[in-house]
């Protein structure tokens, strides 16, 4: 506390040169602010209008409150998230997330990579669900190319299967980290153990455990390897009893319920106003899932339920993710039954490279291969926004093309970046110990927040 | 002025800077409850972008373009607004009062493009350090040509 306080009280020149200070991005002390400034900042922090804030304006004098730093290196901040909390005793009055510690300018980098190379960039944003990032980038590119209806059936179903398996692995990671944050440390081991099984399958298919760059404009990079069906069936058979173990370990436990029920409550109107999507929005009882409400790929042809909560608290968000694992497994089983034969990428030589075997015998194939890997392919001028349901909510990709082989502007609407705005509201009036449960239940991936 | 982009079948509308808040208000009452995304594009090196001819005669293309994606949960549809902002005065009203979820998005656009939002409660940099010079996603801010700025380092 003392460090922050001293920094805030020192003069402006010192703040700029001080080690970790972020100046105006930080939560300011009430004593240093005018009454109006307090109202404006509370409005920004709590995302309320000034009149609403004024009605709950705290009357206590500033010597009863203190500002403490949580993070950026706190173990439960899921990366390098820094929260500045104003406390009165143990109660959180204001909270402000300070982000940007992982900012590496990925949107700027995307402007100098071709559409062919772009997948390697976007897959590193949300590193817990890389395949969904690749999928949305590929779909936006295909929309600009005008080939979004021509992707071969097998490629579409492979994409769907990988997307759902990725949802499972991402939610398993949530189970692990959420358990660890709340104090169920053994859950951390179980969650990571099961996630590893899924990642092992990804490694067989894509060659890598993470950052796959497997879903590419035009289809996927390679066909599924021999024996893939047995691998997936092995996963689907092993997971249900593991999930049943989680239920015994966590769901029914009084301590677990005490820590989560009624913590971090958000209402439906607040979630919509703050643009929150994914499990946060569904925990308020609103059944909004882009897979069902704005179907993409072939989600309109498979059966699954959209899981909703009723209280909008951290326990609802935990249960939603646990049950979404089961729904994803249900979808994967239907995909196994229906996986068609055929090409795994579009046979358009201007977009996808020719098969390796053709290069030795066909001059044309060699030329196409050379052109695609040196220059990439040109995408018609225009702009497009595509959104899909990632494990964390709506992930969108906005691309503006100037007709060249690189995007003129590539923007990713990151669900974690937007969802993080709900934290101050959820934490307001709660205990500092519950702040950890709130961070965990939002399930942010900081690589995606900062990009 | 609206245009359905036949190429991508998206509902795209061009809105002037002065009509921006008015349009948002009416769209919100039409059922677009959520602002899904707000971002910007700097058209410095690509000024002559193609847009539908009937729209092109009515608006003047500027350097910056604010792109707002609204989402209607009740009607399951999207609309995209494109607002032209001039190089000499890159500022626009904040949508914060209508859509509080734009708070972080507008800060990001300010941080990356230097577009200011009038009425935003806390317009500070969000991703870059507070004392950073320049706006990284502008097209005249080139990659790799600027010395890395370290805070507090002896210069």
Oligomeric grouping of the chains = heterodimer
Q: Overall 3D geometry of chain B?
A: globular
The two chains with the largest interface, and their residue counts, are: A-B, 60 and 47 residues
Report how far the terminal alpha carbons of chain A are from each other. Answer: 29 Å
Number of E-state strands of chain B: 7
**Which descriptor suits the 3D outline of chain A?**
globular
Characterize this entry briefly.
The complex is a heterodimer of chains A (about 450) and B (about 160). By secondary structure, chain A is mostly helical. Chain A has helices spanning about 1-10, 10-15, 35-45, 50-55, 105-110, 120, 130-145, 155-180, 185-205, 230-250, 255-260, 270-275, 280-285, 290-295, 315-340, 355-360, 365-375, 415-420, 425, 430-440, 445-450; strands spanning about 65-70, 80-90, 90-100, 215, 220, 380-390, 395-400, 410-415.
Provide key terms for this protein.
heterodimer; A: 451 residues; mainly alpha; 3-stranded antiparallel sheet; 21 helices; 49% helix; globular; B: 155 residues; alpha/beta; Beta Polymerase, domain 2; two-stranded parallel sheet; 7 strands
Report on the architecture of this protein.
The complex is a heterodimer of chains A (451) and B (155). Chain A is 49% helix and 10% strand. Chain A contains 21 helices and eight strands. In chain A, strands 1-2-3 form a three-stranded antiparallel β-sheet. The two termini of chain A are 29 Å apart. Residues 1-19 of chain A have low confidence and may be disordered. Helices cover 17% and strands 28% of the residues of chain B. In chain B, the strands form two sheets. In chain B, strands 1-2-5-4-3 form a five-stranded mixed β-sheet. Chain B is globular and about 55 Å long. The relative contact order of chain B is 0.17. The model of chain B has no long low-confidence stretch (mean pLDDT 83). At the A-B interface, helix 3, helix 5, strand 6, strand 7 and strand 8 of A face strand 3, strand 4 and helix 3 of B.
């Amino acid at each position: 506390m003392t460090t922050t306080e001293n920094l805030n009280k020192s003069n402006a020149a010192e703040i700029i040169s001080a080690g970790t200070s972020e100046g105006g991005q930080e939560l300011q002390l009430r004593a240093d602010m005018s009454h109006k400034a307090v109202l404006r900042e509370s409005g920004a922090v709590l995302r309320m209008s000034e009149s609403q804030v004024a009605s709950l304006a705290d009357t206590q004098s500033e010597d009863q409150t203190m500002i403490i730093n949580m993070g950026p290196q706190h173990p439960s901040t899921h990366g390098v998230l820094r929260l500045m909390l104003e406390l009165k005793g143990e109660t959180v009055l204001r909270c402000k997330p300070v982000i940007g510690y992982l900012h590496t300018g990925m949107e700027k980098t995307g402007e100098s990579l071709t559409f062919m190379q772009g997948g390697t960039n976007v897959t590193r944003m949300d590193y817990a669900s890389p395949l969904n990032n690749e999928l949305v980038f590929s779909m936006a590119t295909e929309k600009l190319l005008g080939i979004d209806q021509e992707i071969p059936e097998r490629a579409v179903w492979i994409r769907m299967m990988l997307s759902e398996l990725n949802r499972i692995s991402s939610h398993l990671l949530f189970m692990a980290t959420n358990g660890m944050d709340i104090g169920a440390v053994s859950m951390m081991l179980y969650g990571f153990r099961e996630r590893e099984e899924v990642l092992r399958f990804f490694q067989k298919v894509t060659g890598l455990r993470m950052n796959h760059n497997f879903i590419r404009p035009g289809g996927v990079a390679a066909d599924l390897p021999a024996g893939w069906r047995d691998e997936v069936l092995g996963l689907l058979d092993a997971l249900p009893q593991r999930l049943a173990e989680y239920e015994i370990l966590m769901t029914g436990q009084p301590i677990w319920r005490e820590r989560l029920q009624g913590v971090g409550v958000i209402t439906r109107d607040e979630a919509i106003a703050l643009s929150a999507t994914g499990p946060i929005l569904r925990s308020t009882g609103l059944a909004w899932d882009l897979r069902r409400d704005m179907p993409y790929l072939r989600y309109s042809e498979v059966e699954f339920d959209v899981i909703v909560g009723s209280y909008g608290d951290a326990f609802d968000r935990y249960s939603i993710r646990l049950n979404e694992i089961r729904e994803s497994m249900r979808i994967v089983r239907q995909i196994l039954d229906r996986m068609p034969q055929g090409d795994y990428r579009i046979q358009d030589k201007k977009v996808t490279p020719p098969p390796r075997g053709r290069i030795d015998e066909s001059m044309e194939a060699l030329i196409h291969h050379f052109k695609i890997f040196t220059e990439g392919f040109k995408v018609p001028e225009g702009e497009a926004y595509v959104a899909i349901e990632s494990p964390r909510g709506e992930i969108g990709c906005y691309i503006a093309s100037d007709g060249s082989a690189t995007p003129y502007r590539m923007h990713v609407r990151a669900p974690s970046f937007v969802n993080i705005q709900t934290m101050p509201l959820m934490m307001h009036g709660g205990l500092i110990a519950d702040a950890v449960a709130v961070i965990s239940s939002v399930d942010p991936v900081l690589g995606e927040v900062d990009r | 002025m609206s245009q359905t982009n036949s190429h991508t079948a998206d509902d795209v509308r061009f809105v002037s800077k002065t009509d921006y808040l008015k349009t948002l208000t009416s769209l919100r009452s039409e059922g677009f409850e959520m602002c899904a995304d707000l971002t910007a594009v700097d058209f410095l090196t690509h000024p002559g972008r193609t847009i539908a001819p009937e729209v092109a005669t009515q608006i003047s293309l500027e350097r910056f373009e604010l792109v707002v994606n609204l989402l209607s949960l009740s009607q399951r549809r999207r609309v995209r607004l494109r607002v032209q902002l001039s190089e000499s005065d890159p500022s626009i009203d904040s949508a914060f009062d209508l859509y509080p979820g734009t708070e972080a998005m507008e800060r990001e656009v300010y941080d990356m493009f230097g577009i200011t939002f009038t009425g935003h409660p806390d317009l500070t940099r969000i991703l870059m350090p507070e004392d950073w010079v320049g706006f990284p996603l502008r097209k005249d801010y080139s990659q790799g040509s600027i010395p890395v700025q370290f805070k507090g380092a002896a210069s």
